[in-house]
TrEMBL record:
<dbReference type="Pfam" id="PF13420">
    <property type="entry name" value="Acetyltransf_4"/>
</dbReference>
<dbReference type="InterPro" id="IPR016181">
    <property type="entry name" value="Acyl_CoA_acyltransferase"/>
</dbReference>
<dbReference type="InterPro" id="IPR000182">
    <property type="entry name" value="GNAT_dom"/>
</dbReference>
<feature type="domain" description="N-acetyltransferase">
    <location>
        <begin position="6"/>
        <end position="170"/>
    </location>
</feature>
<dbReference type="GO" id="GO:0016747">
    <property type="term" value="F:acyltransferase activity, transferring groups other than amino-acyl groups"/>
</dbReference>
<protein>
    <recommendedName>
        <fullName>N-acetyltransferase domain-containing protein</fullName>
    </recommendedName>
</protein>
Length: 184
């Protein structure tokens, strides 16, 4: 999937350094993650490998210019305890937000989750300065806030709430899942 000069594609091993850098910025400068230390490059590579081995989508958005390809953001899903639910994770590089990168990544991720027969997607959003924009972003994509967990996270000595956003697909919670039709 591409939008102008931005291409959304499956992750590759060559993306690990860029993903680690983008995540480090989120850890250091925001409350979108409650991590206080950035995982090592090795741990990031292992996480990518585990997600790919499960057959789950892990996407990157990149742009190519005279210096070659540059990763602008990444998004992936994890399968929490509930088989038909996909937990959504998305990060966009500092300086690239507001260009449509996140929307491209999420639209591609939603399409992939529909293809894999997930019933719902959830997105946990940390409560901090500016994170109301993340809630609004997910609402524009059809997600709804289903829960606010008070004091769920802590970062930089502050107690923070977590908003759980959910998007129902393939009937969501309304239609019981067909246990014979498992995601690919």
């Amino acid at each position: 999937m591409s939008h102008g000069d931005i291409l959304v594609r499956q992750v590759s091993e060559t993306d690990v350094d860029a993903i680690t850098t983008i995540y480090d910025d989120a850890v250091t400068n925001s409350t979108v993650t409650y991590d206080e230390e950035t995982p090592s490059r090795g741990i990031m590579a292992q996480t990518i490998s585990e997600i790919k081995d499960e057959g789950l989508p892990y996407l990157v958005a990149e742009v190519r210019d005279s210096n070659g390809p540059k990763v602008l953001g990444f998004a992936f899903v994890r399968r929490p305890a509930q088989y038909y639910t996909a937990e959504t994770i998305i990060y966009v590089a500092d300086g690239e937000r507001g260009r449509g990168v996140g929307r491209l990544l999420m639209e591609a991720l939603i399409k992939e989750c529909k293809r894999q027969a997930f019933r719902r997607m959830m997105a946990p959003i940390g409560d901090g300065p500016g994170n109301g924009a993340m809630v609004a972003f997910f609402e524009k994509l059809g997600f709804r806030c289903t829960r606010r967990l008070k004091g769920h996270g802590n970062k930089n000595g502050k107690s923070l709430d977590t908003f759980l956003m959910q998007l129902n697909i393939h009937g969501g919670a309304v239609r019981p899942p067909d246990h014979r039709a498992k995601p690919e």
